[in-house]
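USER:
Make up one protein:

ASSISTANT:
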Amino acid sequence: MEQNQLDLETFSCSICLDLLKDPVTIPCGHSYCMNCIKMLWDKYEQKKSYHCPQCRHTFTQRPFLQKNTMLALSRTLLTFTGEKNLIKV
């Protein structure tokens, strides 16, 4: 059961609580769906306040978001190999 929980946590976005879609990892190391973190940071654009929703680390400039290809590939392989008992798509 602990293995299932780890896999779900690893591949889930803490903003939308769904599986990561176009995963990005921000400078503090936490990962989110690209669209989710963009929408969150767009809300704070006028204040120029960007932070991580998990650890609250604050960034002075809006970090550049680039797709985390390793997370995307791992999620794809996990779901493709029939491990549907770990991740429901």
Q: What stands out?
A: The chain has a mean pLDDT of 81.
